[in-house]
């Protein structure tokens, strides 16, 4: 599993989004592992401004077989508090849900809510099929029971779902002239950019935050992700970086002892005794990558980990004890630590200057795992065939418009993102210190100036799209 370093979601886009059968991290707008200050998640039903609806969605948008006309109920939510109404052609901000129930994103992804008053915009959140309450076949168990039912679980079907919901919404609100801006982060950011490319008649523009759309079919460098993780740690503390780098061989050394796995289990307080050393390596790998990916102010989790590791070095020369102190600081003190984490991180690492041991991606191994666990075969070339990838700058320069690709360069996924503007309207907005999807999270008083300016830039670009649209609409009505 340790060498199985590609987010299964990527290759399953064309056949089945990966659930957490692999004990590795995953893409996501929100950080899953780090314990922030206590916060209460408010359920959508408790928000007076948010109304929940269900759209009877078609199971298969691309086939004429009888079973393709089966349906399921897809959840979406609307906040009309700030909307200027259909008569004024006020815009619609649509958040495209990704690989999780949409509930938490509603409250943490504040970009729509923060900017809707200025635009008099309607806010819509649409849940991704097979997640939350938008599950076909009546239950998750039935939806995932075999390769046939899982076959409807892919990105092409998902963005076709969003198209159907948004067209239904415009019709029901008599809002045919209201421009739609689609917004998403991480995998959802990829969906937002692809939606604009595939459905330009529905979405006027897209904000794709931290969307690693180049991590397919060898377009982006395989080791790019882990290179940035290493860079983040090395720049935070060279001593910490060196300790982590040494720790892998130390784990191997201890594991080879007659009772080595027991020693490792005791040292790291694992909830279950380790059966292989790679379980611990996977766990530590995912902690470091998660911390780097979501290295957000004011906590800066990489600094938290390195601060604890460096402080421990003054008390003990035992490298693994130092590493464990980093785990405690990051995950917070607990009676035990579960190495079967739901965190995901992809790709291979094979650079000499990486703080991780060599572990290149192995396509043969990946295919074997997918066949064993899911009974289906990946299609690694389908994403670039369907959405594009190679020669992206050349093709999109003339073909595409009105897409913002936003990235923080401390985010390891930025190594697979669009970091240079492709045209006047396919624009890259990046910040040196930004992390994964930070720009679309709720604005806070403590936000640094560079983050405030990044969001302001994005808002001004969107305003320009809407102003141009309104001018075109006015000209057509008076023609």
UniProtKB/TrEMBL annotation:
SUPFAM superfamilies: alpha/beta-Hydrolases. GO terms for molecular function: carboxypeptidase activity; dipeptidyl-peptidase activity; serine-type exopeptidase activity. It holds the Pfam family Peptidase_S28. Residues 1-21 form the signal peptide. GO terms for biological process: proteolysis. InterPro entries: AB_hydrolase_fold, Peptidase_S28, Ser_carbopepase_S28_SKS. Keywords: Carboxypeptidase, Glycoprotein, Hydrolase, Protease, Signal. Belongs to the peptidase S28 family. This is Lysosomal Pro-X carboxypeptidase-like. It comes from Senna tora. The lineage of its organism: Eukaryota, Viridiplantae, Streptophyta, Embryophyta, Tracheophyta.
């Amino acid at each position: 599993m340790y060498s199985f370093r590609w987010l299964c979601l990527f290759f399953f886009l064309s056949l089945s989004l990966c659930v957490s059968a692999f004990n590795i991290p995953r893409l996501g707008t929100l950080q899953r592992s780090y314990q922030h200050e206590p916060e209460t998640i408010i359920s959508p039903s408790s928000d007076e401004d948010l109304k929940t609806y269900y759209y009877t969605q078609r199971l298969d948008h691309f086939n004429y077989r009888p079973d393709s006309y089966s349906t399921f109920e897809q959840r979406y939510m609307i906040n009309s508090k700030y909307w200027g109404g259909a008569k004024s052609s006020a815009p619609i901000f649509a958040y495209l849900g990704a690989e999780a129930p949409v509930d938490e994103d509603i409250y943490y992804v504040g970009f729509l809510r923060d900017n809707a008053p200025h635009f008099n915009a309607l806010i819509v959140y649409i849940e991704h099929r097979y997640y939350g309450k938008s599950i076909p076949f009546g239950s998750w168990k039935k939806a995932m029971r075999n390769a046939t039912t899982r076959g409807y679980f892919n990105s092409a079907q998902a963005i076709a779902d969003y198209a159907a919901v948004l067209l239904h919404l415009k019709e029901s609100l008599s809002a045919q002239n209201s421009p739609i801006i689609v917004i998403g982060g991480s995998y959802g950011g990829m969906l937002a950019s692809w939606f604009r490319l595939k459905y330009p008649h529905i979405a006027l523009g897209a904000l794709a935050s931290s969307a690693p759309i180049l991590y397919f079919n060898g377009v982006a460098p395989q080791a790019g992700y882990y290179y940035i993780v290493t860079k983040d740690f090395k720049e935070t503390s060279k001593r910490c970086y060196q300790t982590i780098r040494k720790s892998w061989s130390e784990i191997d050394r201890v594991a080879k002892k007659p009772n080595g796995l027991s020693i490792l289990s005791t040292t790291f307080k694992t909830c279950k005794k380790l059966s292989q050393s790679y379980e611990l390596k996977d766990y530590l790998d995912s902690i470091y990558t998660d911390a780097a990916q979501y290295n957000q102010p004011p906590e800066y989790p990489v600094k938290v980990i390195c601060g604890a590791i460096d402080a421990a070095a003054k008390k003990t020369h035992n490298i693994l004890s130092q590493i464990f102190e980093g785990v405690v600081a990051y995950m917070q003190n607990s009676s035990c630590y579960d190495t079967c984490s739901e965190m995901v991180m992809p790709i291979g690492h094979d650079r000499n200057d990486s703080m991780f041991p060599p572990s290149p991606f192995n396509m043969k191994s990946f295919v074997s795992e997918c066949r064993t666990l899911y009974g289906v075969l990946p299609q690694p070339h389908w994403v670039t065939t369907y959405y594009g990838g190679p020669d992206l700058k050349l093709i999109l320069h003339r073909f595409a418009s009105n897409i913002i690709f936003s990235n923080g360069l401390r985010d390891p996924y930025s190594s697979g993102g669009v970091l240079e503007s492709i045209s006047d309207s396919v624009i890259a907005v990046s910040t040196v210190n930004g992390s994964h999807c930070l720009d679309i999270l709720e604005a806070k008083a403590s936000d640094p100036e560079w983050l405030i300016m990044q969001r302001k830039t994005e808002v001004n670009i969107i305003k320009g799209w809407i102003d141009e649209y309104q001018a075109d609409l006015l000209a057509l009505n008076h023609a």
